[in-house]
Every structure is written in C-alpha cells, then in structure tokens.
Write a structure and sequence with these properties.
The complex is a heterodimer of chains A (282) and B (487).
Chain A: E1 4-10, E2 13-27, E3 32-38, E4 42-47, E5 50-54, H1 58-72, E6 78-83, H2 88-93, E7 101-105, H3 109-118, H4 120-123, E8 131-134, H5 138-141, E9 149-155, H6 169-178, E10 179-188, H7 195-211, E11 214-221, E12 229-236, H8 247-253, H9 262-267, H10 273-280
Chain B: H1 12-22, H2 48-53, H3 70-81, E1 86-90, H4 93-105, E2 111-115, H5 120-129, E3 132-136, E4 140-141, E5 146-147, H6 152-161, E6 167-171, E7 178-179, H7 182-191, E8 195-200, E9 223-226, H8 228-232, E10 239-243, H9 250-260, H10 267-303, E11 309-310, E12 323-324, E13 328-332, H11 340-351, E14 357-358, E15 362-366, H12 373-390, H13 411-416, E16 419-423, E17 436-438, E18 443-446, H14 454-465, E19 470-471, E20 480-484
Parallel strand pairs in B: 2-3, 2-6, 6-8, 8-9
Antiparallel strand pairs in B: 1-10, 4-5, 7-12, 9-10, 11-13, 13-15, 14-15, 16-20, 17-18, 17-19
Helix pairs in contact in B: 1-10, 3-10, 4-5, 4-9, 6-7, 10-12, 11-12
Chain lengths: 282, 487
C-alpha cells in the first residue's frame, strides 16, 4: 500500500509526500491537527491539511524569522511571539542569552502540547525559564499594550482560517503601539508566486507600510511551502535591517546557524524584479 | 419554547422543495431563467442549487396567498416554535409584517397608541390605512443619547388620554436591546379591552433561551412581527407574523397580508424560514448560550478600553428599561471624543468591519448564532486601535434631548396634503409632509403631520455633518423639506 500526504498548493497544483506512518490525527476547537513521519522530510505537522513544519526544512524558516531581527538590534530584550505553536521560533530565540523574556501567545494549546510530544526538535526549548506561554488569541493579547516589546514575531498560519485576525490592520496597529521606540515587527508574509498567496502578500504589505517608518520584505526558500519561495515582513520604527544591522556583534556571539549568515541577511532583502514591483505598487 | 409537541424534525416546505428539485421537473412556468440555464451571468454569483430552488408557486409547493398544504404545515410548526396560535410566513421583510399587523387591527380613523421611536413601517401602515397615532414618549437616557422603553405608567396615561384607541403597539426590544415590562403592559391593555401588537423585529431569538427577555407571544400579545432574518438566521427579507387567536382571526389577517404581498413569493426565502425554525427549535438554546457567553466576554474586554462603554441593563434607568438583550452589543463611544457615526465609518474604512449602526453617541454590533470568539476579538482589537489613535477628551454633544413635538395631522392627511418646499434650516414651526430618518435604524426624527422643531433641525444637521445616511426626504441632499401649505 502506498500512503501519501497531498497538499493543494493551488486548485491545479499539488505537492505529495510519501508517508511512513501517521503519528496523530485529531481536532481542536480551531483546526484539524495531524502529525506524520515521512521518508524525505522526517516528522511533520499539518493544520487543516496544510504543511506547517517538518524536520527537514524547518531550520530555514526558523533561522530567518529570528536572526535577521536579532542581528539588526542586538539589544533586544523583550520578545513576543504570536503563534509558533511548534516551538521552533522560541528555540532560536532562547539561543540569545541577552534576551530577558519571551512571551509566546498561541491560541491552540493542543498544537503546543502535541508538538512537545511529536516534534521535540522544535519544541525542546519551550520550558526555558524565560519563556511564558499564553494560550489565547494574539489579536486581543496585544491590544492595549504600550511600549512593552522590542521585537514581535508573528509566526502565524495563513490569513484564511484561524490566522485571519493576525493579518488585520487593527492587529498591526496594536503591535506598533506595543513596540518600544526601536521596536521591530517580523511577520509571516505569504508568497509572491501563486496569485492567491500574492494577493494576501500585497494586502498585508499595504497595511503595514502605512504605519511603520521602515517596512520591508525579505525572502527565503522553503521547499515544502507553495512555490518554495516565501517571504517575511520586516517592519521597524527606527532601525534599517541592513544599514543599522550590527553584524560584528552578531558574529561575536558565535551562534551556529545552518541557513542564516550575514550575507544571506543582506541578500534576502534584494528581491526579484516582479516581487519588488508588486510591493512598490501597493 | 415550543408550546405543544409537534414534530420539529420535519421541515415540510424544505422537503417538498427538495423533492421538486430531485424530481427534475421540466419547467414551462416562470421564472424565466429556468434554473439558471437561461442566464449564465447568475451562475457567477449563485451556486446552481440556489437557482434550481428559485421556483414559483405550484400545487405541490402550495401557495403563500392561501396556504393549505406544505406552507400551512410550515406555518403551524412556526407558530408552535414561537409560542403562538398561528403564523404567517412573510417574504416582504418585517416591514410587510408590521404593516400587515397594524392594518389587521386599525381601520380608517381609528387610533393606535404607539411609542414615538417606532420604525417607519408602523407609521407607513397608518398612511396606508388612515389610522391616527397617539404617541407615547419613551424614556430618554440623556447620557447615552438614546430612547429606551415605555413603562406601564406611560401606557396607562396614553390609554387615559386616548380612551378611544383600539390597540397598543409596543417594541420588543429596541434596536439596542431594551425591553419594557411587557407582561404587565399586556395584562393591563387587555383589561381595557384593547389589542396589543408588538414589533419584535429585533427579538427573533427571544423564545429560544431563558436568559433572554421573553417573547411577546409567550406573554400573551395578540400579534407580533418577528424578523427571523435579523437574529434568527433566515435569509434577508424573510420574516414571520404571529398571532394569538383570542381576539384576531387568521383569515382576516390573511386578507390584509394579501393586499400587501407578492403573488410570486420566493421559495428561497420561505424554505430558509422552514429550516431556520427547525434549527432554532433543535439547536437554538445551545447556540444562544454560546452567543451570550461571547457577549459577556466581549463586554469585559471593551470596557477595559479607554473611552468605551459597552452598556447593559444596569446602566439604564429602570423607568425605561425593564429587560435587556445582551446579544445586542451597543457601545457608547463619545468618551473617545468622537461620535458613533465616525466610529461606524472608521471601522469599515480602516478595519474592514461592518457594524449594524452608528448614531451620535453609540455604535451597535449585533452578535448572533453566526459569530465566533476569533471574529469578536477582531472587533475588540479594532476598537482598541481606534481608542489609541483617536482618543481625546470626551465629546459633549451640543444637544441634550428631544422634546415631544405636536402631531397636527394624521400621517395620511399630511402625506396627501398640498405641500410646499422649504429650506430645512428654516422649517421650524411648519407641519412636515415627509419623514426624515437616519438609516439604520429607520426611526423617524420627524414624521408626516408633525410640527418641525429647532431641536429636530439641529439634530438632522449634526447627522448630516457626520455623514449619516439620511433617508425619507424627496431631496437627497437633505436641504429641503416638503411642508404642508399654510391655509
């Protein structure tokens, strides 16, 4: 018998991964949750049938969502992670001794608890003493907070579904208010390639651009996400991600990474012409 | 709760329609789009099943104008679900249900006692039937810039002043969810041998959860017009007219409704009523419990936002507020230093959120069986962002309260009288020949036959300045008003 996981990347394009074993299937009040073990990608988590994280390529995503901001402002002390139930983003953050506190707000406790069981490679550092877990809606968690965080990372699912509120203008405004004077917002920014993803990318960028003095987008390649070409948003009140980055200090820390390095940091902001054009036009 | 034990698993009208579709009957009747085949443009918006269900009356699907089979059965189940003796399905909105209700009890020259904050459909009914309004002036909550309900004392006084009245018209609840002491009022009015009719446009869910105010029919009202499409869950424009038959005969109401309603009633609307009734009876209580829980949480979070107040019963004087429907999430916003009309616009323009209404002081978000906590949280996040961005010192609006104006002519006399055009700003003292309303909620600021006052004019100017959607006047720029010619 052949057992395959298939995800529709568009109505007309699919990605299939041959499965060794299904580890878990269940539902939470928010979504359908599955864990698999596979030949090419090792263990992976899907929500509502969409690939979230796998053993093979998660390092790319988690390197890029954390280290770009940390190299831009080495003095980041208070961090808020919204979403990120698999724990990978927190894992990378805990490698910085200078960070004093990490609040992680994930609406779905079940995803976190199951990730601790099935994905120890990402969830291993959720018990770090600097980490506080909040199982609630990030949309309202951040509302009303003023100048509390140096960095907010939005590690969310796509805007259609439980992640919807994390792509709203109100949410971005409330994040802006919750950030300190040198605050940085990094968010999951969809992909430029397929039209349905690109539409969300443009909408998201249009909203963020209006309120942050620096609003940029950077890219990385993510083999299991639709088209493999994915983006993060980098929005900042003061610091420019290249001009103000302190690469010497970052290198002095001696943090070993598999994808991120200072050249990738700089290069990731240089976008293909069609992507830059899309962003310029919003 | 349902009065008797009919089998609410059934949905006779829906089932007949489904069978008609399954049988693939060949249509040589109207509608001419013939299940969408004749007009492919429709398929860009509607799934094929919707077009297949868009059929005309026929023997197997019964006739709304004289229901005897599947529509009648659906109506009997509807009546049972809403604790009434009889029910009519209505497809012309609750406007039609209210007009049918008023015209069933009031004829030319007869008096109807009604609160001044009625929906225009009630006054329109008087234009149609020639009845006279005798207004009760509901309690005014100055701090919230709104009217609440009428008290038993108000009703007693009105009956004393207009003993010739045939019926009393009540609202259960107001747009913002306020109810009067309906039980005591109904009992008193019945002792005076008058009829009680109730506009329950905003209370379609009342009969399905005990923490909500009671429904008018359960308390013994003679008729009620219920907007199932508003908070019940059926399709827009579908509605129900209910009656208890002690004082009113079904066939008389049927005759009146046939004056007002289409002979091509939509089966989409009627089937949605049938399914909604089944849904409310079977799952309404559980769903409404969840909605009430959402509303409670939302109020706590909104009240923690500077400048906002999500009000409940305790915030209002008991003179005008006997009960309160907490699924109506009314929020007082002038503490932010802006008007409700402004917040209404900003929510839509900047945050992609459409609320039900904004007036000078408040906005109203409707929570219903279709809401989730995540969606409610988005509203809260937007309100929090608005508070941070716009908050200044509280707004003191230039007007305080609306005094009662005089009713010189009946709505019908004024409507048909010789009129002349006047500048609205200079119309104080004239008798209006038109309505002026802000929509929503569609409650007249001035109605035909009433004397224009400076307070009214100031209020209209404020609403215009805040870009409220004004309706009623022939002049769409709301600069001129037709007043009665002075004789």
């Amino acid at each position: 018998m052949e057992f395959w996981f298939t995800e529709k990347h568009t109505d007309y394009t699919k990605l299939s991964i041959k499965i060794k074993e299904q580890l878990y299937h269940g539902e939470s009040p928010y979504q359908e949750i599955d864990f698999f073990d596979s030949y090419d990608f090792g263990r992976f988590l899907t929500l509502d049938g969409y690939m979230m994280v796998n053993e093979k390529d998660e390092f790319i995503y988690h390197d890029m969502i954390v280290h770009v901001a940390m190299a831009t402002n080495p003095d980041i002390k208070k961090v808020l992670v919204i979403g990120g139930g698999d724990g990978g983003t927190v894992r990378e953050l805990t490698r910085y001794k200078s960070i004093e506190s990490i609040d992680m707000v994930e609406i779905d406790e079940k995803v976190v608890r199951l990730s601790q069981k099935f994905l120890p490679f990402t969830a291993s550092r959720l018990k770090d003493e600097r980490v506080r877990l909040y199982f609630e809606d990030g949309t309202t968690f951040v509302s009303g907070k003023e100048e509390v965080y140096d960095l907010i990372i939005v590690d969310s699912t796509d805007p259609i579904g439980p992640g919807e509120g994390l792509f709203s203008r109100a949410f971005y405004e409330n994040c802006h208010t919750a950030l300190t004077a040198k605050g940085i917002l990094v968010n999951q920014h969809e992909s430029p390639y397929y039209e349905s993803d690109a539409k969300e990318m443009r909408r998201s960028h249009a909203k963020i651009k209006q309120m942050f003095s620096i609003s940029m987008v950077y890219q990385f390649h993510m083999p299991t996400y639709p088209s493999g070409h994915w983006l993060f948003g980098f929005a900042s009140k003061l610091l420019h991600p290249i001009d103000d980055a302190d690469f010497d200090r970052w290198l002095q820390r001696g943090i070993e990474t598999k994808y991120y390095n200072v050249n990738i940091h700089k290069g990731s902001f240089y976008l293909p012409t069609y992507v830059q054009k899309m962003l310029d036009e919003v | 709760m349902a009065k008797t034990m009919l089998n609410h698993d059934e949905a006779p009208l829906f089932e007949a329609l489904k069978k008609h579709m399954d049988d693939r009957v060949i249509p040589f009747d109207v509608p001419g789009h013939k299940q969408g085949r004749g007009n492919e443009e429709l398929l860009k918006l509607f799934p094929k099943s919707v077009l297949e269900a868009d059929v005309n009356s026929m023997k197997s699907l019964d006739f709304l104008s004289n229901p005897t089979t599947v529509i009648k059965k659906a109506e009997d189940l509807m009546a049972d679900a809403f604790s009434a003796d009889e029910a009519f399905l209505v497809v012309g909105g609750t406007t039609q249900a209210v007009q049918g209700m008023v015209m069933s009890v009031i004829s030319e020259g007869e008096t109807l006692i009604m609160p001044r904050n009625v929906h225009k459909s009630a006054i329109n009914a008087l234009i149609l039937c020639g009845g006279k309004p005798h207004y009760m002036y509901p309690y005014i909550e100055e701090a919230y810039g709104m009217t609440t309900g009428v008290s038993l004392e108000d009703v007693k006084k009105a009956i004393k002043d207009a003993p010739e009245a045939k019926a009393v018209f009540l609202i259960n609840p107001t747009y913002y969810g306020v109810t009067s002491d309906l039980k005591a009022i109904i009992d008193f009015v019945h002792q005076q041998e008058m009829i009680v009719i109730v506009d329950e446009a905003h209370g379609a869910h009342f009969n399905f959860h005990e923490e909500l105010p009671s429904s008018a029919m359960a308390l013994g009202a003679d008729m009620a017009a219920v907007s199932t499409h508003k908070t019940g869950g059926s399709l827009t424009q579908s509605s129900v007219l209910l009656l208890n038959t002690t004082k009113i005969h079904r066939n008389h109401v049927k005759t009146i409704l046939n004056l007002l309603q289409t002979t091509s009633a939509s089966y989409l609307l009627m089937a949605s009523l049938d399914l909604t009734r089944r849904f409310l009876v079977k799952s309404g209580t559980g769903n409404l419990k969840a909605v009430l829980g959402l509303a409670k949480k939302a109020r706590q979070k909104i009240n923690a936002i500077p400048g906002l107040k999500a009000f409940v019963k305790q915030d209002f004087s008991s003179e005008g507020c006997y009960g309160f429907d907490e699924t109506k999430l009314g929020i007082h916003v002038t503490g932010l230093g802006v008007t409700g009309l402004f917040v209404y616009d900003i929510l839509k323009e900047e945050y992609n959120i459409q609320v039900e209404m904004g007036d000078a002081h408040n906005i109203l978000a409707i929570l219903s069986v279709g809401d989730t906590e995540k969606r409610v949280n988005q509203l809260i996040a937007a309100l929090s962002a608005i508070s941070h961005k716009y908050k200044k010192s509280p707004l003191m609006l230039p007007f305080k309260k609306f005094n009662a104006t005089q009713v010189i002519k009946t709505p019908r006399e004024a409507f048909y009288a010789q009129k002349e055009r006047r500048l609205l700003k200079e119309s104080a003292g004239c008798i209006s020949g038109e309505f002026v309303m802000i929509y929503p909620p569609g409650i007249p600021i001035v109605a035909p036959g009433e004397v224009m006052t400076k307070e009214m004019i100031d209020y209209i100017e404020l609403l215009k300045a805040e870009k409220g959607t004004m309706t009623g006047l022939e002049d769409s720029n709301v600069e001129y008003i037709y007043c009665l010619k002075e004789s």
